[in-house]
Amino acid sequence: MERTFVRRTGRMTHGQRRALAALLPVYGASLFEQKGRNIDFEKIFGNADPVVVEIGFGMGEATAVIAENNPDVNYMGMEVHTPGLGRLLMEIERRGLKNIRVAACDAVEAFNAVNAESIFGIHLFFPDPWPKKRHRKRRIIQKPFTDTLASKLRVGGYLYMVTDWTEYADAALAELSATTGLENAYARFAPRQTWRPKTKFEERARAEGREIRELFFVKSPPAEFF
Fold first, then answer.
1. Catalytic machinery residues
2. Whether residue 50 has a cis bond before it, omega within 30° of 0
3. pLDDT digit string, tens, across residues 80-128
4. CATH architecture for the domain at 14-219
5. Which residues lie closer than 8 Å to 49 by C-beta, 6 or more apart?
């Protein structure tokens, strides 16, 4: 699968730089410490609480709020945008959160090292839609990667995607619907999940007239054969 992101450094504030230097060693997770070893979430978090992985958390606004509201769930944020990493680290410190770890990594590579059926949930809030037709093969929600995502979810776990790009929403609906092991929790698109906080990005998208669409799929038990 082609790289699903463009590594953008972007402008960083003094606070974000400080957070990266001082807090990444504390709240950062080195997912590939031992070559050939799968990711050990219990070791990373120091407990066996359920794990939710967020792919591309942006500036981490929603991530911090959701984690604060759910202290008995562990949240692993994967991001390559350094200002976003710094900003979420600042929020972790400000809110005194103990259940978030961040990893500066390619999610596609990282998921290959995740144990099967070890994750409770996967969040993808406004992933890059790669709108140009020639770039659509870079979208993260497409097979065979959706098969990988499904294999890492435990039975009853969920995948929750939100996008402001209508064509991507339609394409993602088709890809997830064709993924073995996933079942749509709704007829087509999901209603807004009230526990997900609105971000500045979402408010801007709405102000510019873009429709927000949500997808919520659940990992189903394997089919029984007689």
1. 128
2. no
3. 989 999 999 999 999 999 999 999 988 888 998 899 999 999 999 999 9
4. 3-Layer(aba) Sandwich (3.40)
5. 72, 73, 74, 99
